[in-house]
Specification:
Oligomer: single chain
Helix content: over 70%
Length: 325
């Protein structure tokens, strides 16, 4: 327990330290950043807000179809509620994916017979989302070949794509799974790992489901990129769209490294570094990052309300599945 508390304190310190460092610079001072965000033109801000909301709704549907592929019934209302809940807890946990733990906990309560599968699907959903993010970044990089200023971001994207390809090969290889399982001595842990692997392997013969989820991921991430473009225009900045399609995937991937709270500080530094390389003013880059983060925070508060109301919970006509398939 002490180690967990110490780790949390360290990560809060890292986030606070990076943000303090950013605000200590004249061109990215707190007053300049807040003034820039306050001056974002309203039409662009409203469009960005609505676009992120659409992304949340599409992401909820993606998780729902993955659950239903396992014959775990979940209504769209619950899918949206759990998605909001995960987003809310992302604000207070490590990196940008900490809320998945809470979401997985509640997802497991939707079924009595497939609790491990239901929880695992939350993380499968996240991995499918990251795969879409990496591929989108790779495609965007193809339009940036020859640009030395974008070289480092392109290298990161292609390394992540390669990692996902390797994970897919290993994930759908039962021979590897059996060999790995022999080294897990504890029977309960072995059984849990077995059920997790089966939940992943399940999709090998259901490629249409995975492709559908992957396609929805591309739509969600495209929406996030467009949200950044809209906010940048609201800030009075106009740089080539290909920069966003390369940098946003990389920044989101890096921000998921669990060294900060909800990516704060690390994300802002990455915006400053990558977008600054293509001519965006440092103050504008940090303002863009924080404006995006504040939009995510605003919508995630809906999840906080749901949690306070003890939602999502099963209604009378939505009972957990009790039979094993």
């Amino acid at each position: 327990m002490r180690k967990k508390i110490l780790g949390l304190v360290i990560r809060i310190g890292v986030s606070a330290g990076i943000i303090a460092y950013i605000f200590s610079k004249p061109d990215t001072s707190f007053s300049k950043i807040t003034a820039a965000i306050a001056d974002i033109r309203i039409p662009w801000l409203i469009a960005a807000l609505l676009l992120y909301k659409v992304g949340l709704l599409i992401g909820s549907y993606r998780w729902q179809i993955l659950m239903r592929a396992h014959e775990i019934p979940v209504s769209y209302r619950h899918a949206v509620g759990l998605n909001y809940l995960g987003c809310f807890f992302n604000n207070f946990m490590l990196s940008l994916t900490g809320g998945d733990v809470v979401k997985a906990y509640y997802a497991s309560k939707l079924t009595a017979a497939k609790k491990t599968e239901a929880a695992t699907i939350v993380f499968i959903d996240r991995m499918v989302g990251f795969a879409g993010l990496a591929v989108m970044g790779a495609v965007g990089s193809l339009f940036a070949i020859g640009s030395a200023k974008m070289h480092s971001a392109m290298v990161i994207v292609f390394c992540v794509v390669l990692a996902f390809a390797l994970m897919a090969v290993v994930g759908f290889n039962k021979t590897f799974a059996r060999k790995f399982g022999k080294y897990v001595l504890h029977p309960k842990i072995r059984e849990v790992l077995k059920r997790i692997y089966e939940a992943v392997y399940f999709y090998k013969d259901r490629r249409k489901v995975l492709l559908g989820a992957f396609g929805l991921s591309l739509i969600v991430w495209t929406g996030l990129v467009l949200m950044n473009i809209l906010l940048a225009k609201g800030l009075g900045v106009d740089i080539p769209a290909r920069c966003y399609f390369v940098f946003i995937p990389v920044i989101n991937i890096i921000s998921c490294i669990p060294i900060t709270i909800a990516g704060w500080g690390l994300r802002e530094q990455m915006y400053k570094q990558f977008f600054g390389a293509v001519g965006m003013n440092s103050g504008v880059a940090v303002s863009l990052s924080m404006a995006c983060a504040l939009i995510m925070l605003a919508w995630s508060l809906v999840g906080g309300v749901l949690y306070a109301l003890r939602l999502p919970k099963l209604s009378a006509h939505e009972k957990p599945v009790t039979s094993s398939q």
